[in-house]
């Protein structure tokens, strides 16, 4: 199994650099197969959401759609996909960033009852507690 870095995934999705996008496309479409999927970690998904929002001005709906598509592609294996699905659902039903929701769901899966935060917006979501 091969893992994909965020920059490869971004080039594949954005198709904004003629050379790197072509290389990413060729690699993903040739080497990521049903029998031998490529691995995507939760870190890559966090970075992807951040890059799409801050560098590509993608909307929350667009980001959610891209993460959902990644989860559904059998040629890609997402780390602890069930946790990512829960975080994606949380993200789609709130105004908090995807990485925050993913963090809370990862922590929950590891037995944490709360994720302590200074982020007031995140603290209003289930799984978070504002640290005072």
TrEMBL record:
Taxonomic superkingdom: Bacteria
InterPro entries (UniProt xref): PIN-like_dom_sf, PIN_dom
Annotated CDD domains: PIN_VapC-like
Domain annotation PIN: ranges: 4-124
PANTHER family on file: NUCLEIC ACID-BINDING PROTEIN, CONTAINING PIN DOMAIN-RELATED, PTHR39664
Name by which UniProt lists this protein: Putative nucleic-acid-binding protein
Organism: Nitrosomonas oligotropha
């Amino acid at each position: 199994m091969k893992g994909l870095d965020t920059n490869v995934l971004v080039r594949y999705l954005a198709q904004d650099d003629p050379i790197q996008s072509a290389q990413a496309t060729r690699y993903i479409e040739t080497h990521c197969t049903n029998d031998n999927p490529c691995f995507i970690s939760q870190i890559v998904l966090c970075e992807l959401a951040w890059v799409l929002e801050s560098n590509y001005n993608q909307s929350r709906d667009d980001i959610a759609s891209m993460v959902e598509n990644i989860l559904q592609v059998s040629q890609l294996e997402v780390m602890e996909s069930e946790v990512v699905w829960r975080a994606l659902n949380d993200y789609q039903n709130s105004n908090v960033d995807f990485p925050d929701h993913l963090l809370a769901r990862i922590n929950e899966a590891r037995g944490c009852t709360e994720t302590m935060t200074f982020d007031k917006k995140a603290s209003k979501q289930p799984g978070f507690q504002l640290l005072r």
